[in-house]
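Dear colleague,

Thank you for sharing your sequence with our group. We've completed the structure prediction you requested, and as agreed, I am returning the results in plain text so they can be pasted directly into your records. Please verify that the sequence below matches your submission; if there's any discrepancy, let me know and we will rerun it promptly.
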Amino acid sequence: MSEVIKVPGIGDAEGEVIEILVKEGDTIEPEQSLITLESDKASMEVPSPKGGVVKSIKVKLGDQLKEGDDLIELESAEAESDQAETQPDDSQDTSDGQPVDEAEEAAAPEKETGQEVVDKSAAPPSESVKEVQVPDIGDGKAKIIEIMVSPGDSVEAEQSLLVLESDKASMEIPAPFAGVIESIEAKLDQDVQTGDLILHMRVKGESDSAPGTAASADSKQASPKADAQGKDQKSQAEPKAPAANAEKDKAVPPPVGRPSREGTKVHAGPAVRKLAREFGVDLTDVSGSGPHDRILKEDVQTHVQGILKQGKQGGASQGSVGGAGIPPVPDIDFSRFGEVEIKDMTRLQQIGATNIHRSWLNVPHVTQFDQADISELETFRKDQKTAAEKAGVKLTILPFLLKACAHLLREQPNFNVSLMPGGKQLAHKQYVHIGFAVDTPDGLMVPVIRDVDKKSLLQLAAEAAELAEKARTKKLGADGMQGACFTISSLGHIGGTYFTPIVNAPEVAILGVSRAATQPVWDGSTFQPRLMLPLSLSYDHRAINGAAAAQFTKRLGELLGDIRSMLL
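Please find the predicted structure tokens below.
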């Protein structure tokens, strides 16, 4: 008799299935762990209330479960023992008191039936190719961040095939059955959803007959000599089955409550896997200290600290050769030198610091410096002050910079690209969206103006003022800071001459603008006072070479020097 084991009381919260500790056909004991659930606060193993044989598993990795949900279908050990006690009595009643002649008559058709069963069980199992699809992962999509098998690999049921990552979690997708990988249809970094094809697997067909069927057929084929002799033979043959099962149980020990850690399979929750990716840590190198060798966040942090210490020790004796990382800044107690006040960075400052650090480490920066003569542009800007006021906007130098840079991104499209993750392809953008840096009380923000090349100077002035105000009043949403092709960072309202802005990856260039100043410029016969604007163009040297950067700043100076040239 089978029954469905359900999730016990875990409160009102839900938990995610991050590990399935048994498989179909396993013999389990009472209180043996079935699955591991992970909630926002803790992870827990769910035990079986009774022993028996697992007939089917009702959950998949990544499922969200709550109290009362189905876990497994279990054939209880009590039902099997009752059936084993009842079955000999039935067979004995069938043969008891039957004359020898009638027994021989009844044996003839049973021989034929038994022969068919034997032939069927002896037939080689057939093979078929089955599709493996993405199980139910909700309504959203997830990216394939790791493929854990290759064509030709033999996998067991519930063995992990690949790892998916969504906005909220990472999950391993298990094999729904055992077999050999025929072909892999999914690719790394591919976005998939529920029902998408992952791979094809060659599966061996199972025989329809049970081992006990052939044994019963052989016993029926034996010619009965007498009732007493037949009873003796049955009494001698029947105890052999439990003995054989006992030997089998000794040869294959029951599950110990967790899958094997062979190969690259490790036990860690989504938060731990995300932390490991941020540190660049291979989880197979980390020793787990949690239950059943589960890897915790503290294990990853300890592993990283160990690597940094090794790198520091190696650097002392070998210099920079073979270093394992950048030496950390020493931890200093500043209160030893005077009074200090520790304040937390704002969330915006923390995000900005992370993004800038990532860009600085990943992008090989080069900065091209130049000057633009904006004397005539400044005269034109002041002449249009009345028209701008009528339109309700303030015409600053920023709209001119936006318009000139948008013109250049169309003219020199190698600046309007982004490197693809593999580093061997460039994404050429057919749109021109430009971000501009805004200094707010909480930190630096970069609103993005879309389709700059299609808007007038007054439109750009109005939109820039509106976005800057939203940034300062914390009303600028995430969409308003995404999708830029190029960024302008202006310090003209503060001062200075030149600076080296950091590229806002995945963009490949950023323009830094300082305060314009009147300088003497030689016109061939005399020095003339001209308003010169300092320009600093930082760029990703993997995508842009120095000659192209010099041409960009030279051409930008020409456009700003005579804005009429943008109309050609």
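Summary note from our side: Residues 100-122 form the longest helix (23 residues).

Kind regards,
the structure core
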